[in-house]
Amino acid sequence: MPGIDTDLLVIGAGMAGLTAAARAVAGGRSVVVVEKSATIGGSAQFAGYAWTAPSHEVMEEVNPNGDPALRRALVDRFADGIAWIRSLGIECADAVTVLRYGTGHQFDTNGYIDECRRRIRDHGGELYMSAETLSLLTQDGGVIGARVRLATGEECEIRSHATILATGGFQASPELSGEHIHPAATEMQLRSNPTSAGDGLRLAEAVGAASGTDRSGFYGHLIPTGVRFRDTADFVALSLYYSEHALLFNLDNRRFTDETVGDHLTTMDLLEQPESRGLLVADARVYREWITGSYVEGAAALDKFDLAQRRGGRCGIAENLDEFAYLPEEWGYDGAAIADQIRALDAAGPDSQPPRRYDSQALDEGPYYIVEACPALTFPFHGIRIDEHGGVLNAKGDTISGLFAAGSDTGGLYNRAYTGGIAPALVFGLAAADRAVADLTPPVSTC
Ligand SMILES: Cc1cc2nc3c(=O)[nH]c(=O)nc-3n(C[C@H](O)[C@H](O)[C@H](O)COP(=O)(O)OP(=O)(O)OC[C@H]3O[C@@H](n4cnc5c(N)ncnc54)[C@H](O)[C@@H]3O)c2cc1C
């Protein structure tokens, strides 16, 4: 079997993998990147902001059950990550608030992806597209590369000093989603690249890696029920980010969560409700201020209600609360009961139950904009356990020699909470690259 020797093998050419590979070649290391699909960039192609919690206090407040070492590393090294992006000549805009509690920078993710590829190639790195990683190679309990089937069908052994898993999570595997997120997760529409199907997790577990945390949730957003994504632009266009200013009722005609904490958190809660669907109600004020407004400073505004309606979602406009009685019966809600609750909530203000911590304004201005919503899945929070350098851990909590992971393949950082997907891919991609080849001098060249 033909073989290749390299300092660093990176499996997955998305945000984490390309970051790691570009960093390693910048340090004079030889790198081989193996990508499963015919294109690079993964879900990072669709992202626009690198952001996270601005301080340890905020991280602790919004993500109290995440791994403390990973949380700390993410906050501490985020600024270095932004400096790294800028060092490649990619502009990062000034900091803006993201999702109420985060801080981040808009940047050209596709420009960054292209620049990483250019640097990898210019430094003699190899990028194998449409390649399948069959197994990791091991020796004395450590990882020494991988067996890969190239696009030509040829199998080859890539022997490496270190290997970084960066395949982007398991959201494209209904089986793994059902097992680790929630049984109902198998039904969610995929709001990400289609190739992240848990290969990194399976490869890591086959060599003794620990994974976790089960039921720690996922990143995703509410979308209109019954509307299929037609293309990747729909991932953002159909996301009902404004739900944090609206009210969400389940099939029992009850609110079940504090919607104001954020659409991405409400999304996790809705998954666990009956049939994973609910009625999202906004009034004329919310429509004006939030449905047709911009979600994050710098992002384009789009009338999501209008789009949901045009695309055949379950939508309706009620001129006043009395008209809720005429909700289509086949939707399964009791409109009059929901209208009564809206009246009661408007009267309760900040004392609403569940509370509406960050926006307790009344929804008392007709007309009302009603959309039935369900969760869509971007990536899971369950994954390969790592230390703060990206080193993969076994069940005893020891690192597995030669094996690293970064980005959405990893778990433990978030537990029913979220402070960005690009930021951990960036921070732990850099950390893994630095640690993976730290003990290697002088650089070894490709054979
Ligand atoms: C619509 C959308 C908008 C988003 N916006 C933001 C945002 O503004 N800010 C933010 O922080 N996050 C955002 N995210 C999330 C962010 O894109 C991800 O968290 C980030 O890209 C994760 O990086 P990654 O390298 O782990 O995975 P990815 O970037 O998805 O890359 C994984 C790569 O691995 C490849 N792969 C899979 N299996 C294999 C295999 N067996 N062998 C080789 N390669 C494999 C995939 O094809 C892919 O190229 C968004 C996501 C989506 C879908």
From TrEMBL:
Pfam families noted in UniProt: FAD_binding_2 (PF00890)
Listed cofactors: FAD
Cross-referenced InterPro entries: FAD-dep_OxRdtase_2_FAD-bd (IPR003953), FAD-oxidoreductase_2 (IPR050315), FAD/NAD-bd_sf (IPR036188), Succ_DH/fumarate_Rdtase_cat_sf (IPR027477)
Residue stretches making up the FAD-dependent oxidoreductase 2 FAD-binding domain: 7-421
GO MF terms, alphabetically ordered: steroid dehydrogenase activity, acting on the CH-CH group of donors
Record's keyword terms, sorted: FAD, Flavoprotein, Oxidoreductase
Protein's name in the database: Succinate dehydrogenase
Organism of provenance: Rhodococcus wratislaviensis (Tsukamurella wratislaviensis)
Name of encoding gene: ifcA_4
